[in-house]
Write a structure and sequence with these properties.
The chain is an alpha/beta fold. The protein has helices at residues 3-10, 44-47, 56-68, 81-92, 107-122, 139-143, 148-151, 198-211, 262-265, 284-299, 306-316, 339-352, 376-393; strands at 23-27, 30-33, 38-41, 100-104, 126-130, 161-164, 179-185, 214-218, 242-245, 256-260, 324-327, 332-335, 354-355, 358-359, 362-368. α4 (81-92) packs parallel to α10, α11 (306-316) packs parallel to α13 (376-393) and α12 (339-352) crosses α13. Bound molecules: 4'-deoxy-4'-aminopyridoxal-5'-phosphate.
């Protein structure tokens, strides 16, 4: 049997129509399939591979850590230098109040941890989230997802969740002194790149301050330079009480984190002791890889180049079939009239050697979230192919 047949038979499926493309190698912003065909990767593992696939400094850091140790003990007991050094590097680049990093193994677990932390610290139970938000697929993170379609089959979910419209001032008074935390993506990704009004995030911050609710910002997808600043919240003049990180955090390895002030974070250490624990959070090899990727991001000044690359895409992506392009940095949604049109375009692009997909809550939008170090000529080539597919389909 071929690998593809075995994949369909023995690897649990998440949809009835998986792409089932077999990738045998990845390098920089390129993927290569089993037949040796090359693809420009416009999605970088969906905002994971911000420094590209197999960056030599990331590989080197992984190898070095493999020679020292891999897993040695559940998270939180032993001093493991990759965790320590990465937590220091992250907090050095975050506002002073975000000084304590709780590492997890995934983004969903970061959401879970933050929800528990907010309840424990505030002694309150209500959690508020927003329509069309995505914070993960576990039961807790699914409970704050902003989509009835994905929630309904799995009810009952967590009680005490209230959902408000994103980017709407009207809902904010529903945040009260009963609210443990409000969780929001700084820029909504799966909704098809929805950038909130500047003043809205400020008003949200202010309402949280007035009521004592903690503000949790999810930058699992939009952090690490994706939107043109290291952290998306910098663009809105606010600081969250808890920051969620994942995806690019691990430099291509599985890693998540929630970050808060240690005054808040320490509430997980008592009543009960070990209030939040996990075996693999902050895996030393993942932290070593993540730290190396973080260093690359900073040393190669990749964040500074995001705006010019965004502009290059925007200049080239002009076609009567394109309804709109919504973007902030290298997170872009190219809107078409329907899902079926978008799917046709995506399939044609894949056969032309451009790898992309659509968004969970915006299936008529093509996703562009490439490695931040994608070369200009790859951007031009990808755009040329997109335009030629659109011409052909017209
Ligand atoms: N939050 C956001 C904004 C995400 O995009 C994702 C992943 N798509 C998650 C949380 C969940 O992360 P993970 O898939 O690693 O659990």
């Amino acid at each position: 049997m071929t690998n593809r047949q075995l994949f369909l038979l023995h690897v649990a499926q998440t949809s009835e129509a998986p792409l089932a493309l077999e990738i045998s190698r990845a390098e920089g912003a390129r993927l290569y399939d089993a037949a040796g065909k090359e693809y420009i990767d416009l999605i970088g593992g969906i905002s994971v591979c911000n420094v590209g696939h197999r960056h030599p400094r990331v590989l080197e850091a992984i190898k070095k850590q493999l020679d020292a140790y891999m897993h040695i003990m559940v998270y939180g007991e032993l001093v493991q230098s990759p965790q320590v050094r990465y937590a220091k590097a992250l907090t050095d680049r975050l506002p002073a109040s975000l000084n304590s990093v709780f590492f997890t193994a995934s983004g969903s677990e970061a959401t879970e941890g933050a929800m528990k932390l907010a309840k424990r610290y505030s002694n309150r139970t209500q959690i508020i989230s927003f329509k069309n938000s995505y914070h993960g697929s576990t039961q807790g993170s699914l409970s704050v997802m902003g989509s009835e379609y994905w929630q309904q089959a799995f009810r009952p979910l967590l009680p005490g969740i209230l959902q408000l419209p994103y980017n709407s001032f009207a809902g904010l008074e529903q945040i009260t002194s009963e609210t443990a935390c409000v969780i929001a993506e700084t820029i909504q990704a799966e909704a098809g790149v929805i950038v909130p009004q500047q003043d809205w995030l400020k008003a949200l911050r202010q309402r949280c301050d007035e009521t004592g609710a903690l503000l949790v910002l999810d930058e699992i997808q939009c952090g690490f330079g994706r939107n043109g600043t290291l952290w998306a919240f910098e663009q809105f003049g606010i600081v969250p009480d808890i920051l969620l990180l994942g995806k690019a955090l691990g430099g291509g390895m599985p890693l998540g984190a929630f970050v808060a002030d240690r005054k808040i974070m320490n509430s997980l250490t008592h009543d009960p002791v070990l209030g939040h624990i996990n075996t693999f959070g902050g895996h030393p090899v993942c932290c070593a890889a993540g730290l190396a990727a973080f260093d690359v991001l900073l040393d190669e000044k990749l964040v500074e180049m995001v705006g010019a690359k965004e502009q290059l895409f925007l200049n080239r992506l002009q076609h009567p079939k394109i309804g709109a392009v919504r973007s902030r940095g290298l997170m872009m949604a190219v809107e078409f009239e329907s899902f079926s049109m978008n799917k046709k375009i995506i399939d044609a692009l894949i056969s032309e050697g451009v790898f992309t997909d659509w968004f969970l809550f915006a299936d008529n939008c093509l996703r562009i979230v490439p490695p931040l170090n994608i070369q200009e000529q790859d951007i031009q080539l990808a755009c040329d192919r997109i335009i030629s597919v659109l011409n052909r389909l017209s």
